[in-house]
Design a protein that fits this description.
Structural class: alpha/beta
Number of strands: 13
Order of helices and strands: HEEEHHHHEHEHHHEEEHEHEHEHEHEH
Largest sheet: 5 strands, parallel
Mean pLDDT: 77
Length: about 450
Amino acid sequence: MNQLIEQLQTKLFTGRLNLEARDGSAWTLYFRLGRLIWQAGGYNANERWRRYLSQYCSNLDVTQLERLVSPQENYREYCILAKLREQKLIEQQQLVNLITSLIAEVLFDIMQYIEAKRNGDNPAGQLSHTIVVGEVPGFLLTVIPTEEVLKQATQAWQEWRDAGLASYSPNLFPVIQQLELLQGQASSKQIISLVDGTKTLRGLGQKSGRDVLALTRFLMPLVKAGAIAFSPTPNLRKVGIIQETGNPSSAVNNSNSSLKREEETVILAPDFKKVAPPATSKEIVSSSSAVNNSNSSLKREEDTVIQVALPAASKAIIDVSRPLVACVDDSPTICRSLEEILTHQGYRFVGIQESLTAVLKLIKSKPDFIFLDLLMPKVNGYEICSQIRKTPSLKDVPVVILTGKDGIVDRMRAKLVGATDFLGKPVEQDKVLNVLHKYLTV
């Protein structure tokens, strides 16, 4: 796929590239003079569009925005963005970032589909392509650097795969599979509130202010234990909230809130084959902890219920009362290191690796504390810090510079743009926590 896109770029192609599979999956990429300008199709396309529109136009009503253009209009979403730009409701850089994010997500999904089919050795599932010359929107909003968006999508896919998630699509909808497995956990209410079956993993990531990779890694122990499953479609469930007393009998399990049977909720890999829900843990259980309500549709042994110990990091994701710490660094390693340190201490965490969109994402997530890398491509830490201090909602947030350089000139320049303090790399737990305690009132 990358090679095909590069060929179209070399030939200064204008038109659309259709990618289709026999199972019905289809994506479209639009080019002008070899540069990507738009996308369409794929999984949950409407959800993808509304998610990014709400992210980059958070102060506007999405429903109202969609009334700007008739549903019958060709390239309707593209036309909506044109209207927003015309009315100065979106800045040009925001527009570029929005379109780039949409295209990168589509490219990620195509990469995952291709690799899943290749690994499954299923020629029937391979993508075929058609090229249609000249079919593009009649006006141009922006062109996207093809190499950059391909690199962004490839990096995101590699990180997803390296985390052991290649067989799980971020377009799946997490649903509560076995309510009693969440029983006795301090964060059970928050988990049930978050995982309501109406949002994809990507949507949940946006809702919780978390990177989708970090959120999915958190959920996987619950998936493997059978507490949560993934559905290919939205699956709203009215489940009872477990009382904080921890008393198993306090779970609400009437017929109006029962979960669907096991066979109706499946783990779905990108090759769209149903696979059995994961085996539950074989940890020792207590007969006194069983929920014995005859109206419950959950299958379980008469006198036992499996209890799952959630990781300590779970509270950091779910408990919205805890401080949110952001890390702006193009290094996935640094972001993961900080995430591990902070979530185990009960902090919420958001990692931002794209410097161009950093300030927008910070405005959206509203962190209480920011770690900021000094040396990044496209936009460096000095520029981002200066923008933070000019943003009313962020101007008072502590900003600690992360750097391997610790010269007097760097310190003076960082102070001039409003940095609060410095922290040397590599990051160490004691130093990270010390600087947090110094500037952040918990």
